Amino acid sequence: MRLSVTGRSAAAAVIAAAALLTTSAISTAATGSTGPTAPPRAAAAPDIPVANVKAHLSQLQSIASANGGNRSHGSAGYKASIDYIKGKLDAAGFTTTVQQFTTSGRVGYNLIADWPGGDANQILMAGSHLDSVSRGAGINDNASGSAAVLETALTVSRTQYKPTKHLRFAWWGAEELGLIGSSNYVRGLPAAERTKIKGYLNFDMVGSPNPGYFVYDDDPTIEKTFKAYYATKNVSTEPDREGDGRSDHAPFKNAGVPVGGVFAGASTAKSSAQAQKWGGTAGQAFDRCYHSSCDTTANINDTALDRNSDAVAYAVWGLSS
Ligand code: DTR
Ligand code: CA
Ligand code: ZN
Ligand code: ZN
After folding, report:
1. Which Pfam families does this one have (predicted)?
2. Looking at the predicted structure, is the pLDDT value of residue 1 above 80?
3. What ligand 1 atom has the least distance to the C-alpha of 243?
4. Which parts of the chain fold into alpha helices (H)?
């Protein structure tokens, strides 16, 4: 290929060539210059409206408040949470499946939502746990991840995104009892189905009130993708050390699926170095209401929720196109 722009690297030429092959994936949400002289390029990830994510948090808070104050495994609040998410996805054109299971003598559910299309042999998944602990409404843990994943899925529908890979979204039950729902899902997959899953992205606690910006460091490609997003926002990140094996990505990783995700911090205190680069309060937990009754809609940092929701979309678009 002859380059018309001097100084362009071979890698840039490859990227440009790849973009030429994906003109059908150019989304209406793409930003920047257009017109006859602009080169065609791959779909840009859309901005996720944080107001929409917050509206889902309010709905999940109302569901908890109407059902004894929580959305824990086996409760009416959990089932109502599943019904809320499923209703939105069904209306948006997803193919939804509810998987029922019993653990600790109570019935729980996973919700799986497939976006029709894409290569059935290459699946990208994004998921979050939907159950709270019984002490509270679980808005940061984990209505935040659930709402960010939901609004990303709804944005896939709104933009009628046509990814190369097949997209599958998941909301897990009984994470708080030991990753039960996600473990059941992975265990139930035939080996041939499991190997089609080329990546699993996990979102658990993405709006912590005294936030950190942690990126899981399990898979280099997925980690690089999230770091590239935060670099565009001039936000520095750290590898996640608090969470290893502590959320629903663990069963996927143990089954050989590449995993990644982001996390805004739980009960660990923010150091002064971290407060210097991220703002917030040194010596205070990232989430002082972790697993407490004060984990309500007041327990959310809007900037972290906005950035991390946009990071979900950035990774879903970037890793599926
Ligand atoms: N699994 C979370 C708590 C948690 C702690 N560390 C991390 C790191 C990454 C994600 C989540 C977490 C809970 O649900 O309690
Ligand atoms: Ca946004
Ligand atoms: Zn928890
Ligand atoms: Zn959690």
Report:
1. Peptidase_M28
2. no
3. 8
4. 10-20, 50-65, 76-91, 144-158, 180-188, 191-194, 220-232, 249-254, 272-278, 302-320
Give the pLDDT mean for 251-260: 97
> Domain containing 158 — which CATH number?
3.40.630.10
Residues lining ligand 1, CB < 6 A? Answer: 141-142, 175-176, 204-205, 240, 242-243, 246-247, 263, 266
Ligand number, closest to the Cα atom of 52: 2
152 located within any domain? yes
SS3 41: coil
Q: Which atom of ligand 1 is nearest to the CA of 242?
A: 6
Sheet holding 119-129, edge to edge: 95-103, 106-115, 165-172, 119-129, 197-203, 259-263, 214-215, 238-239
- Closest ligand 1 atom number to CA of residue 246: 1
Is 288 domain-assigned? yes
Show the domain range for 213: 28-320
| Cα 208 to middle of ligand 1, angstroms | 11
Which residues are annotated as catalytic? Answer: 175
Residue range 208-218: mean pLDDT, rounded: 97
Would residue 8 count as lying in a domain?
no
- Write out pLDDT tens, residues 38-57: 554 556 899 999 999 999 99
Please give the distance, rounded to the nearest whole angstrom, from the Cα atom of residue 307 to the centre of ligand 3. 21
Confidence of residue 33 (pLDDT cuts 50, 70, 90): very low
Does 215 have pLDDT greater than 50? yes
For residue 204, report the distance from its CA to the centre of ligand 4, in Å. 5
The answer to whether residue 312 sits within a structural domain is yes
Whole-number Å distance, alpha carbon 46 to ligand 2 midpoint, is: 8
Residue 93 has pLDDT above 80, yes or no: yes
pLDDT digits (tens, 9 = 90+) for 10-24: 333 333 333 322 323
**Atom 12 in ligand 1: residue holding the nearest Cα:** 243
What does the longest C-alpha to C-alpha distance in the chain come to? Answer: 67
Crossing angle for the helix pair 50-65 and 76-91, to the nearest 10 degrees: 150
